[in-house]
Amino acid sequence: MDHPIWTLIPWVIVSVGVALKVWRFSALVRRHLMGTPAELENARALLERSWQRDQQEV
Fold first, then answer.
1. pLDDT interval class at 2 (50, 70, 90)
2. What angle (nearest 5°) sits at the alpha carbon of residue 39, between those of residues 35 and 45?
3. Overall pTM surpassing 0.70 (yes/no)
């Protein structure tokens, strides 16, 4: 256990674990961001319909 490689093994394991967590989190963020334009378009259409209804009532 005097060899320096034994000091590096835990750091390699932790680094791989952190890299996997970051990859999974970034995948969730990318998936959420790819759905955003459709959600924004739906919100814009809803507001526009509401505005048109308000204009018809006046």
1. confident
2. 150
3. no
